[in-house]
Amino acid sequence: MEDDTTNITKLKILVKEFCEKRDWDQYHNPKDLSIGIVTEASELLQHFRFKNEEQIKNMLDDEKKNEEITDEVADILYFLLRLAQMYEIDLSTVLKRKLEKNEQRYPVDKVKGLNKKYSEY
User: Fold this and answer.
1) In terms of Cα–Cα distance, which of 72, 75, 76, 79 is closest to 49?
2) Which of 5, 24, 42, 121 has a CA between 20 and 30 Å from the CA of residue 115?
3) CATH architecture label of 3-87
């Protein structure tokens, strides 16, 4: 299964089936799934804490470290997909909507090459 041949619905179904086999629906409310996203994102961040760009590149080039990092990415995606699957969030639609909002907040002619928040320019 690869990104260019898999759609979001298929991923949601994989997560749903995995969780239902384990009777985990009872634990997957929006609060706890959100906590899972934040927890896993923090675990991902821990890999990069106090590392410079060269150290990060070396970690990503190292097979064992790369697997640890990508496992955290997968954990984040798992919780996000589970939240979307359980609460009927169409990820494609909400992402498109958010990008349209950000198009207004961050017009190219004002922010190109800048990393400031919309309230700072």
Assistant:
1) 72
2) 42
3) Orthogonal Bundle (1.10)
